Amino acid sequence: MLLPVNATLGVVLALLLVAAAAVAALASLGRSREILLAGLRAAVQLAAVSLLIGWVVHALPPLLAFVALMYAVAVRTAGRRITRNRTWWWAALPIAAGVVPVIALLLLTGLLPVRGIALIPVTGILIGGALTATVLGGRRALDELTSRRGEVEAGMALGLLDRDARLEIARPAASDALLPGLDQTRTVGLVTLPGAFVGMLLGGASPVQAGAVQLFVLVALMAVQATAVATVLELVARGRLHREE
Fold first, then answer.
1. pLDDT for residue 92
2. Are 66 and 120 in contact (CB under 8 A)?
3. 11 torsion bin: left (phi>0), alpha (psi -120 to 50), beta (else)
4. Alpha-carbon distance 33 to 191, whole Å?
């Protein structure tokens, strides 16, 4: 076991959480309260999920309901990070566009069995990757359109369609959302050993098996995130996902 679950672990986690909030406060980052709340929520949610997964893995209906819950929470989290108005629900599209084809491919080829012990972690990893890419891509695109509104209007004055003018300005900024995934993939094994690799090793798998699983996760994530960013960029360009003036 990598970490013993005892009082010492709890104390260390609490100290790290307080340290993270303190650094954010000292650097005037304005996220101290969010850091504390995120850490506390994570503790409560992981405790609940740890108990819940033991039940849902044994039957298909609760398994599918749990996957749907993960998707719904991801949509709301991503959408509300991008915008506070009623268009936030459009975040459902890029997340689904990235995750559904990959999961369908894995199920149809038999690489992923319809069992909770396999489906939940894989789906969770992919939904999490799509969430991150959607948030970063959507926020960067909308920020760029706001700061460079004059260039968008100039493009429209020259005859470009609204969508095309917005795409020209927002596309380079939105593409930056792919950088974290690209850097993680390029440096895997040299800088970090990601969770899937370490988890497989701790579970008794051979290094070759662990490496194969980690490679699959990284490549699948790149496909999911590229699709999510392309979709959220299109939604922003078409004005479906926007902020109030």
1. 96
2. yes
3. alpha
4. 31
Highest mean pLDDT among 55-69, 183-197, 216-230: 216-230
Q: DSSP characters for the chain? A: --S--SHHHHHHHHHHHHHHHHHHHHTT-S-HHHHHHHHHHHHHHHHHHHHHHHHHTT-HHHHHHHHHHHHHHHHHHHHHHH-SSGGGGGGHHHHHHHHHHHHHHHHHHTSS-S-HHHHHHHHHHHHHHHHHHHHHHHHHHHHHHHHTHHHHHHHHHTT--HHHHHHHHHHHHHHGGGHHHHHHHHHBTTTB--HHHHHHHHTT--HHHHHHHHHHHHHHHHHHHHHHHHHHHHHHHTTSS----
